[in-house]
Amino acid sequence: MIDFQDVSVLYPNGVRALDGVNVTVQKGEFAFIVGATGSGKSTLLKLIYREELPTQGQVRVMGDDLTDLHPGAVPYLRRKIGIVFQDFRLLPQKTVWENLAFALRVIGAPSREIVRRIPEILDLVSLTHRCDAFPHQLSGGEQQRASIARALVNNPPLLVADEPTGNLDPDTSWDIIQLISRINIRGATVLCATHDREIVDKMRRRVVVLDRGHIIRDQQRSSYDDES
Amino acid sequence: MNPRSIEFLIQEAFVGVRRNGLMAVASISTIALSLAILASFCLFIFGAHRFAQNELNKFEIAVYIKTNTDKTAVASLAEQVRGIPDVRSVIVYPKEQAWPEFKKSLPHIDTAGLNNPLPDKLRVAVRDQRRTTKVADRIRQFEEVDAVQDGRTQRQYVLAITDFVKWFGIIASFALLTATIFIISNAIRLTVFVRRREIRIMQMVGATNWFIRIPLVIEGVIFGASGALIAFGLVGIGITYLSSVVARVMPMMQTVSTGVGRNEILAALMTGGVVIGAAGSFVSIRRFLKN
Ligand SMILES: Nc1ncnc2c1ncn2[C@@H]1O[C@H](COP(=O)(O)OP(=O)(O)OP(=O)(O)O)[C@@H](O)[C@H]1O
Ligand SMILES: [Mg+2]
User: Fold this and answer.
1) pLDDT value of position A24
2) Closest CB from B8, B198, B211 relative to A91
3) What pLDDT digit, counting tens, does each position of B130-152 carry?
4) In the listed set B150, B178, B193, which residue is the last one of a domain according to the structure?
5) Distance of residue B9 Cα from the nearest chain A Cα, in angstroms
6) Is A40 a pocket residue for ligand 1 (Cβ < 6 Å)?
7) For A19-34, what is each residue's pLDDT tens digit?
8) Ligand 1: which of A13, A18, A42 to mutate, judged by most atoms within 8 Å of the beta carbon?
9) pLDDT digits (tens, 9 = 90+) for B216-236
10) Cα(A221)–Cα(A204) distance, rounded to whole angstroms?
11) pLDDT-based confidence at B256, cuts 50/70/90?
12) For position B142, what pLDDT does the model report?
């Protein structure tokens, strides 16, 4: 599904955000990316949805070599990836329903499909009653559920989440992670960068630890801190 | 891109205008004002040029024919002059018509018993005032012609003014046009700039560049067209007001018009507004679509 080979990212300002990273994620996996702030978690995720390009090495996502992916093909890559951010990034001028509809319009879905699919996904994230609200009228947890709904609305095989619980209280965070976990059980591959020790420890999933651009630990069914 | 998407994108543009209401008002009024100023200036220049041109066209060549020439010779001379290229019209002004008018214009001179001493005259209008001197020189060569007056000095003076108005108008309108394009594309760029975050989000959910661009370009067109319409209203009010003032204070200027019809003004404003609006948003979006 995802394959990094000797990947380095050197930002124009001279910061080496990733340095010789090798990592492979199989279809259907759920992996946490953890590490101190500035260790390169967001950079690693940005490489997956081709927000950044590696300065060295090779990134393959769902069969595409992103280093020589034509810019015109990037939107089509992103339609296969649901992306969730710490700050939600909903379209501020659109209601929850319209935000989801937009993601479907983008892929050219017919209206029939849209009115069938959106209630389904709103039900999954328990937002049916808030579908006509604008993002600023929602709580943080609701906004994040809306953004997850948007990420999932066209059934992408891969979900990438960059600190999805970063702005939420512990209870809400746990709800969100449960939601993401359910999506994983339904078949999507999930990559989740987080600082949330409690969640990582409770979930006991694969944990990839970054430190100053290097992977220093990569363990299945692990926890936030090294157990060995 | 299928028709379903096109419909959605057009709808998106209108929703975008509505939900960014304040921005829309700001940019539409900027566009309206700058277009109105540009249009008024151009109309003023058109009017001034046309006025000067009219004055210029009043110049005629006066051809005095030798007194011993008979009527048939005069007629044939008139015909020959008419055949000279650039001559627009020739009017024969026989001495029998000139004499009573002359007497009437100088009532204190005793002309009783005097034989008509005036010559027959041709009044020659020329198509292009720049060629008047040449035409006059050709007329001088006819045997029957006694004297030719072509009003050289005054004509050149008016000609110089006309030329000045024309070139000043062209240069100043271009400068003003450039400024207008700059102001309008800036207004449009601002509407795109406040949407840059939205553009990034759209890219994240896999929207192609065209999908992002089309509604914003349509928005630019809506802004440009609305601005043009308001500018047209402003210019229309301005013209109506101005002509009522002119009619009151300078009745003799009343016949001066710009020679440009309302439909033409509207068409020019619309074309300008729409083209600059569309091009302005297209160019501004390009900066944000770069990745
Ligand atoms: N666009 C950029 N230009 C220059 N430097 C950058 C850019 N993005 C990130 N960096 C730098 O690269 C390093 C890694 O950043 P990154 O955002 O990947 O870290 P992170 O692990 O996500 O941190 P956090 O936990 O705070 O989100 C940091 O030193 C950061 O300052
Ligand atoms: Mg980060």
Assistant:
1) 96
2) B198
3) 888 888 888 888 888 888 888 88
4) B150
5) 9
6) yes
7) 999 999 999 999 999 9
8) A42
9) 899 999 999 999 999 999 998
10) 5
11) low
12) 86
Domain with B244 in it: 3-55+158-290
- Asked whether the beta carbons of A84 and A164 are under 8 A apart, the reply is yes
Helices B21-57 and B209-249: crossing angle in degrees, nearest 10, is 50
**pLDDT tens-digit profile of A116-134?**
999 999 998 999 999 999 9
In degrees to the nearest 10, what's the CA dihedral of B63, B66, B68, B73? -50
**Which pLDDT tens digit goes with each residue over A93-111?**
899 999 999 999 988 889 9
- Mean pLDDT throughout B160-180? 89
Please give the ipTM for the structure prediction: 0.90
Tell me which residue has its CA closest to atom 4 in ligand 1: A11
| 8 A C-beta contact, residue A44 and residue A21 | yes
H or E element that contains B41: helix B21-57
**Contact at 8 Å (CB) between A208 and A34?**
yes
Global confidence as pTM: 0.77
What CA–CA distance (Å, rounded) separates B22 from B26? 6
Give the pair of three-digit tokens for residue B153. Answer: 């000095």
What are B193's two structure tokens?
């700039």
Is residue B242 a contact partner of residue B272, using CB atoms and an 8 Å limit?
no
Q: Distances in Å between the alpha carbon of A125 and those of A183, B127, B241?
A: 10, 82, 63
CATH fold of A1-80+156-220, please?
Answer: Rossmann fold (3.40.50)
Nearest C-alpha neighbor of B259 from the set B49, B36, B35 = B49
Intervals of CATH 3.40.50.300 along chain A: 1-80+156-220
Does residue B136 sit in the same domain as residue B223?
no
Q: What angle do CA B270, B276, B282 make, to 5 degrees?
A: 130
Quick one: DSSP state of residue B68?
Answer: T
pLDDT score for B180: 86
* B104 and B129 both lie in a single domain: yes
Q: Are residues B144 and B23 in the same domain?
A: no
Residues 6+ apart with CB under 8 A from B139: B61, B63, B81, B84, B124, B145, B148
Interface residues from chain B to A (CB-CB < 8 Å): 2, 4-5, 8, 15-16, 19-20, 197-198, 200-209, 211, 291
Boundary (domain end) residue, out of B150, B180, B210: B150
Tally of domains in chain B = 2
> Are the CB atoms for A94 and A173 separated by under 8 Å?
no
- If DSSP states are collapsed to H, E and C, what string results for B175-191? HHHHHHHHHHHHHHHHH
